[in-house]
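PROTEIN DATA CARD
Card holder: LLM class F420-dependent oxidoreductase
Chain length: 285
Origin: Mycolicibacter hiberniae
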Amino acid sequence: MSETFALKPDLGRYAVWTFGSPTGEQAAEIERLGYGAIWVGGSPAADLAFVEPLLEATSTLQVATGIVNVWTAAAEPVAESYHRIEAAYPGRFLLGIGVGHREATAEYRSPYRILNEYLDALDAAGVPTSRRVLAALGPKVLELAARRSAGAHPYLTTPEHTATARELIGPSVFLAPEHKVVLSTDAAAARETGREAVGFYLRLSNYVNNWHRMGFGDRDLRAPGSDRFIDAVVAHGSAEQIAARLDEHLQAGADQVAIQVLGGWERLVPTLKELAGPLGLTPRD
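Structure generated from the sequence above:
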């Protein structure tokens, strides 16, 4: 079993997180705007067929999975996909894996045990620790990510969680939290959009338990979520206000922040364009 530290991947300070794959045209524009990577969520299939079209449409942008679900995508075919992509586009793909949700998997068992078994299979198939990360929220899986992968990709957290995670895993481990954004100065409307995106997770024990550890109480986490809670996990306001909130993750120790734009695909690129300047990104001509 491999338990060596991996060199940190370099995916830039800011990335984009999407539920499902964007188009090649969107990926090219995201690259042009200066974002370093796209994280594709939604538990993609083991063939990872969406990856090559995104890499073909771009020249330096990296693509990561956020995340491959160990229950629905077996390690062996995922490893085959990794090697296929790496051969065609060396150094531009990062494999993010995780255990999903207890409520969605009938055969769900110890996340720690199943992740170790999955990592053993990836080791046997030659997937390097330097090109894989784990979805990690709690201390035990964060420590596992530090030991057996390049780092951690926490989802639906806050800069305070980022600071705690960084202290736990140490300075040499890659840390890339996701954070949701709504570009709107109408706080009530922005919170409504945030609640539509977050409500599903309020029924999932792994997220609820993590939010309790972060100091949110039962009233905060009772559907549809308190204003305090929604404001903590969904950044909204002007582009400058959102950029300041995202920067808090970097100040807390994140290597990269993966930005999930809420409000539909039509809002993706326009929002990222508005954020690019305040985030300090330099678009290409």
